[in-house]
Amino acid sequence: MPELPDVEIFKRYFDSTGLHQKISETNVLNAKVLKSVSQKRLAESLKGRKFESTCRRGKFLFVETDGRVWLVLHFGMTGGLQYYKGGNKSDDYERVRFTFDNGYHLGYISLRMLGRVSLTDSLEKYIQKEKLGPDVLTVSRAEFKKILEHSRGAIKSTLMNQKHLAGLGNIYSDEILFQSGIHPKASADSLDDSQRGRLFEKMRAVLDTAIDRDADPKRMPRTYLLPRRGKGGKCPRCDSEIETIKVSQRTTYFCSKCQKKP
DNA sequence: CTAGATGTTAAGGT
DNA sequence: CACCTTAACATCTA
Q1: Is A26:A46 a contact under the CB 8 Å cutoff?
Q2: pLDDT band at A232, cuts 50/70/90?
Q3: Percent of chain A with pLDDT over 70
Q4: Residue A162 approaches strand B within 7 Å at CB
Q5: What is the pLDDT of residues A213-226, one digit of tens each?
Q6: Is the C or the N end of chain A the one with fewer CB within 10 Å?
Q7: From the CB of residue A160, how many other CB atoms can be counted at a distance below 10 Å?
């Protein structure tokens, strides 16, 4: 379920499983997940190397090797990682498998194959090429406000646009707007300074909480909108029916009483 | 059987 | 240029 909190959890998982061991083999089980790299080049670039550290930027996970390459992972809508002992059954949707000297495997999993695995020789260059905006967990309050001021269109679209801000997707954008009491279709440049400040605060609070709880939807606070998505959910604040609209072609859940029309 | 699901991107339009 | 809409990707589930 990869939005920023999920990818942050994947990062921690990678850090505690896949680092500092020699990579003996890389198997591509489905080449459709490869982006701008061949099966052969991926395997050859990683053979004999070690993954040394990871760096998350928005929904991307970059893995530094002791060579001159970075592995780039993106998880799409349905993906993850699985570290498991050689000989044990792998996940049905494992698409790339890294095997280490200790006999363990790290599987890159992508059910719908909307995720991508790539290589780059420079983090900066890759981020520039993707035109990725600042990570929403490290962007400063001033920079955040500036980005909103300079975007038109629905605030939710701005929050979800990875070129403006990297890390938020459909679910957490809804949550942050709900917590801030702002209508998803309010235009970004119409928000006043206190609304922009509130959005920034809630954004940090929601993401920190989600990461704290391992990005597990079942563990979100009762005051959150997230568990009320779908099936006649009620607003945790005023108990009126949660409504749905489309914003940027994505189903948007919100409370029309607590989040007033622009 | 159909529609929709946490994401991105290309193509076309305003 | 900034933004919007649509379709597409592949697969599962309500």
Answers
A1: yes
A2: confident
A3: 100
A4: yes
A5: 999 998 999 999 99
A6: C
A7: 22
Q: In what order do the strands lie in the sheet with A60-65?
A: A51-57, A60-65, A70-74, A116-120
Give which of A135, A123, A165 is closest to A148, Cα–Cα: A165
Give the ranges where chain A is alpha helix by DSSP (H).
4-17, 39-46, 123-130, 141-149, 155-160, 170-180, 193-212
CA distance A68 to A48: 13
Q: Is the CB of A152 under 7 A from strand C?
A: yes
Chain-centre distance for alpha carbon A76: 8
Rounded mean pLDDT, A114-137: 95
Q: Is A253 helix (H, G, I), strand (E, B) or coil?
A: strand
Nearest-nucleotide field for A187 (CA, C1'): C3
User: What residue is closest to C2 (Cα–C1')?
Assistant: A152
Q: Is the C-beta atom of A29 closer than 7 angstroms to strand C?
A: no
Nucleotide nearest A132, CA–C1', reads B8
pLDDT one-digit tens code per residue, A9-50: 999 999 999 999 999 999 999 999 999 999 999 999 999 999
